[in-house]
């Protein structure tokens, strides 16, 4: 099997580099927290305390929908900012 042709920076392609940085780790943690919280069923598998008549099991999960949304927005913002800084740094190196 042959590898697909790679494009050079002059052709509009970007160099694929896999670097682990602190912002990327923070973004990954932001995405992993809701996943881990929902997998730990024993933490919310109960009926009390009820909130406005809604059992804990249900309102806890709905709360995590909001928390997950916020954490995903934070992760997205971190990744986009990191990509912009990386592109600006690469453009500065080429000049």
UniProtKB/TrEMBL annotation:
Alphabetical keyword list: Membrane, Transmembrane, Transmembrane helix
Keyword Transmembrane helix among record annotations: yes
Segments crossing the lipid bilayer: 20-41, 61-79
Keyword Transmembrane: yes
InterPro entries, per the entry: DUF3311 (IPR021741)
Name of this protein: Membrane protein
